[in-house]
Write a structure and sequence with these properties.
Rossmann fold, 237 residues, alpha/beta, disordered N terminus, 8 strands, disordered C terminus, 2 domains, two-stranded antiparallel ribbon, 6-stranded parallel beta sheet
Length: 237
C-alpha cells in the first residue's frame, strides 16, 4: 500500500485590498469624500489607483493631488471611513473557498496598507479569522518587504527556509516580494492592470482565485525543489 506523502509547507502571504477584499468602489468613494473634506479639487478615478508606483493610502492621496501637509489626514480619513462602514467589504468570488483549501496545508498571513482592525473585521464577517495566522497592517511598523520578512521569520519553523509566496494585485506588492526575496504571484482581479503588474516581472500570474491553488500545488508536487520560482505554464499572460 502506497504511503500518502505529507504536503510540503509554504507560507502564503496575501495582500488585502484587491486580493481578498473587493474594495475598489469603497476606495474611490472614500478617496473622493476625503478630498472633498480637505478642500482638494480633484475628481477621483480608477487611474489614480492603477498608476500608483506604491500602493498605499499616502501614495493614493498624493495621486489625488492632496498637498503634502494634508496627506496624513487623507490617510486617517480614508481608514476611518472603512472602520465606520456598516459592514466589511465583499470578498471576491471563490476566495473564501481557496483560502480554506490552502490553509489546510499552509500557514497564511496578510500584509496590507489597510488597518489590522479593518482586516480582522473582514475576516470575522467572512468566517476566515481562524484560518489566518497573522495580520500586518499599516499600524505595524516597517515597509511591506520588512513585514513579509517578519511574517516569514515568525511563522515558519525551519528557520524561515521554506518557500514564501506573496500574493498581490499591485506593482508595489511584486516589488516588495522581490525585495524580500520571496516568490511573487500577481492577481488580475484587483486594483491595477495586468500591464502595470507585468512591469514588476512577477514569478506567476493568477487570472482567477483557483489559479492560486494550481500554482501552489504545482510547486508542492515538485516538493519545493525550485522554491516556487519557476513560471507556471499558462499562468503568465
Amino acid at each position: 500500500m502506497r504511503q500518502t506523502e505529507t504536503p510540503f509547507m509554504a507560507l502564503i502571504i496575501l495582500d488585502y485590498d484587491g486580493v481578498l477584499a473587493d474594495t475598489l468602489d469603497d476606495l474611490l468613494q472614500f478617496g473622493q469624500q476625503a478630498c472633498d473634506k480637505l478642500g482638494v479639487d480633484h475628481w477621483v478615478t480608477k487611474d489614480d489607483l492603477n498608476d500608483l508606483e506604491v500602493m498605499s493610502f499616502a501614495s493614493y492621496g498624493q495621486a489625488c493631488e492632496v498637498p503634502g501637509h494634508l496627506v496624513d489626514e487623507f490617510v486617517k480619513i480614508c481608514l476611518n471611513f472603512f472602520a465606520e462602514k456598516k459592514s466589511p467589504p465583499a470578498i471576491f468570488p471563490d476566495l473564501g473557498d481557496v483560502v480554506k483549501h490552502l490553509s489546510a496545508s499552509h500557514p497564511i498571513a496578510i500584509v496590507t496598507t489597510n488597518s489590522s482592525q479593518n482586516v480582522k473585521a473582514f475576516l470575522v464577517e467572512h468566517r476566515l479569522d481562524g484560518l489566518i495566522q497573522a495580520v500586518y497592517g499599516v499600524d505595524t511598523p516597517g515597509s511591506k518587504a520588512q513585514k513579509i520578512i517578519k511574517a516569514r521569520n515568525l511563522l515558519l519553523e525551519n528557520g524561515g527556509h521554506e518557500p514564501v509566496f506573496m500574493v498581490g494585485d499591485s506593482l508595489s506588492d511584486i516589488l516588495a516580494a522581490k525585495e524580500a526575496s520571496v516568490t511573487s504571484i500577481a492577481v488580475t482581479w484587483g486594483h491595477q492592470s495586468l500591464e502595470n503588474l507585468l512591469r514588476g516581472h512577477p514569478d506567476h500570474v493568477a487570472s482567477s482565485p483557483h489559479d492560486l491553488i494550481g500554482i501552489i500545488e504545482q510547486w508542492n508536487e515538485g516538493q519545493g525543489t525550485d522554491h516556487g520560482n519557476s513560471h507556471s505554464p499558462g499562468n503568465r499572460q
